[in-house]
Amino acid sequence: MRFSVLASGSTGNAIYVATDRVSVLIDVGITGKQAEAALQTIGVNPADLSAILVTHEHVDHIKGVGVMARRYGLPIYANAKTWGELDGQIGTIKEEQRRLFAVGDKQELEDLGIESFGISHDAAEPMGFCFYHGAKKLSVATDLGYVSDKIKETIRGADAYVFESNHDVELLRMSQYPWSIKRRILSDVGHLSNESAGDALLDCLGGNAERVYLAHLSKENNMIDLARLTVKNILEEKGLVVGDDVQLRDTYPDRPTKLEVL
C-alpha cells in the first residue's frame, strides 16, 4: 500500500492511497488543478485514479471533488446524509458515479479493504477511514472534536496514521477569532488540539515504529514545529521514543508528503 497526504490544513485536504490494482483520493478539498499537480509531484497520473471517498461536506474537503469526478469519470463514495449536502455544492454528478458508503461499513475496492467509522464534527454525518492491504493498515482520522474509545479501538494497530493536530489551545484563545468560532473549534464537534492529539495517540500506538502524520493544522492557531514538539513531549513522557518507537511526520497545506510505502 502506498499513500501521500497531498494537502492538509484549514485551506484544503486531500490524501492519496493506492495498491497495484486500485488508487483512491480521500477528499479533494483543493482545486482540481492543485490536485492534479500534487499527484504529478509524487509521480501519479490522475487518469489512473479509481475513486474518491468523502469524509464530510465542508468545503476544505470537497472543493475539487466534482471537478475531479467529472474530468476522470470517478465514482464518489459518501454516506447518505453527506450526499444530501454534496448535491448543492459539487455540481452535477452522473447517477452511475454516485456510490453509498455508510458509517461503520466495510467495502473492498479490488485488493484494498476500506472501513469507515463515525467521528464527532459539526457536519451531517462525518466519518474517517481505515485502509487494509495484506497485513498493512492505514488509519485516517481528522476533523475530530474528541476521540472516543470506539474510534481508538477502530484505528488502533495501524502501521501509519494521518491524525488531526489542529491547534494550540493558547494560540487559539489569544487569536483574533470571534469567541463563537473559538467555542466551536474547542467543542466536542470542533477540532483536535495538539495536546488532545498526543493524549489520544498514547492509547493507539504500540511502539512499533508507527508513522504518524500530524494533519489539518490551523494556519492561524498552530505551527508545524509546535504541533510536532507538543505531541513528541506527550508521547515521550509516557516512555515512547520518537524517532524509534514512533515516527512523527509533517504535512503541508501547499505540497504533498513523500509517497510512502507500507
From TrEMBL:
<dbReference type="InterPro" id="IPR052533">
    <property type="entry name" value="WalJ/YycJ-like"/>
</dbReference>
<comment type="function">
    <text>Counteracts the endogenous Pycsar antiviral defense system. Phosphodiesterase that enables metal-dependent hydrolysis of host cyclic nucleotide Pycsar defense signals such as cCMP and cUMP.</text>
</comment>
<protein>
    <submittedName>
        <fullName>MBL fold metallo-hydrolase</fullName>
    </submittedName>
</protein>
<keyword id="KW-0378">Hydrolase</keyword>
<dbReference type="GO" id="GO:0016787">
    <property type="term" value="F:hydrolase activity"/>
</dbReference>
<dbReference type="InterPro" id="IPR036866">
    <property type="entry name" value="RibonucZ/Hydroxyglut_hydro"/>
</dbReference>
<feature type="domain" description="Metallo-beta-lactamase">
    <location>
        <begin position="11"/>
        <end position="216"/>
    </location>
</feature>
<dbReference type="InterPro" id="IPR001279">
    <property type="entry name" value="Metallo-B-lactamas"/>
</dbReference>
<dbReference type="Pfam" id="PF12706">
    <property type="entry name" value="Lactamase_B_2"/>
</dbReference>
